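Hi R.,

Here's the input for the zinc ion complex you asked about:
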Amino acid sequence: MAEQEKEAALPSKKNFSEWYNDLLQKGEVMDVRYPVKGLYVWFPFGFNIRRNVYDIMRGLLDKDHQETMFPLLIPENEFMKEAEHIKGFEDEVYWVTHGGTTPLDVKLALRPTSETAIYPMYKLWIRSHADMPLKLYQIVNTFRYETKHTRPLIRLREITSFKEAHTVHATWEDAAAQVDEAIRIYTEFYRQLAVPVLASRRPDWDKFPGADYTIATDALMPDGKTLQVGTAHHLGDNFARTFDITYEDAEGEQIYAFQTCYGVSERSIAALISIHGDDKGLVLPPAVAPVQVVIIPIIFKKSDDVLEACETVKADLEAAGVRVKMDTSDNRPGAKYYKWEMRGVPVRLELGPRDLKKNAVMLVRRDTGEKEQVSLDNATDEVLSLLDAIHDDLYSKARADLKERIFECENLEDIREKLPVGIAKIFWCGNKDCGLKLEDDIGAGILGIPDEQSEGCSGKCPVCGSDSSTQVYVARTY
Ligand code: P5A
Ligand code: ZN
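And here is the predicted structure with zinc ion in place:
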């Protein structure tokens, strides 16, 4: 390795935290040097990943949601209306108190989330059955004065890419079905990022402030902690009562509407980077890679025919919709490999005079390092199927890894032993005290109750010993 490359090498992924921070900088995702705690800057390359990720989200939502945009500032009186909601957020809100030097009559909150910005308008928009279901979403920045350790993309004080959807329905059941639909949408979104997620219902003490219940999706990070990467909340008619959102039923009676909301942030990008990346840098699923194929011409003397062949391959790939870059810089091939590996480009295509003589090109996979020589005549088809294979392999590998790191546990000792590696699955009596005691005793709480319970199974709560037929996940969380 050249001196300059050695210096630039990442720490091993085994030291996950250092690896992650260094990778964000060297992979040109985020610059973490902005001088306000919890705020970070997107590098253009990282922002390009973000655009691809959010295009996938838009593609899924636009089938039956509409995109919109509400104001950033929320007047104090609206913000203070829903009691549970305020309790949950009051310690995290940034307030705007002045316009210039003049104190404002009504303080304005920077949205930590937009229920209290959106629902006063929903009151005006919902009149009758015909106005429902209403399904809107926005992708905006939100602000939370987080007191836990802040981390780029994971725990931000300015969430730059908060995708929040807010729906209104005529019945509680319709809203419940929408919560399930939201979890299906998120699971599909993460499948397209090659990130497997677990869906589970949060225990009551951990639900969204003001909700009837919360279902969350979590990803398992390399260090064994789970990252909550999406949540869907059934709001019942709690907010409708507060904000007076009603519709007229067949008998002419005013009925409070039922609502849901669900959200995802740039944690989605944290998850995909962390799960797929390796000691050489980013490993990006083709669907979100800003550059899907990098062409490296191997030139010894002045070899115009090599360059020409590279240009032809590039044009063919572009015509097939592939995002291609050709690196004709003066760097040595080794330095080029290093650079594009760090940026996670899924396929490297090498073409030199010897390849050209054989009418061939070399394809190198970023995820496995495997090399394969293919004919120049069908290079485009070979690349396209390789990109598909890379996505599938990344996803299967991540799924197998997740499965291997969920452990059925029967006692506290067992749980304690497995948590550094992954998630424990235990029987739980349903008592809050046992849940909280678990947190005190082993420093890991109940993550949630999975949808799929092993059939006919029962066991004992490891805290109090009582019989239970409900299994829950226990994990250390971000
Ligand atoms: C749902 C959307 C809400 O705010 N209101 C509108 C609901 N839910 S939530 O669970 O509080 O947030 C939704 C998701 O956003 C991510 N998230 C964060 N990401 C980065 N930094 C933060 N400080 C942060 N806080 C929440 C989580 O993935 C969460 O599930
Ligand atoms: Zn118990």
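One thing worth noting: Residues 113, 144, 146, 155-156, 159, 164, 208, 228-231, 233, 261-265, 267 surround '5'-O-(N-(L-prolyl)-sulfamoyl)adenosine (ligand 1) (CB under 6 Å).

Cheers,
M.
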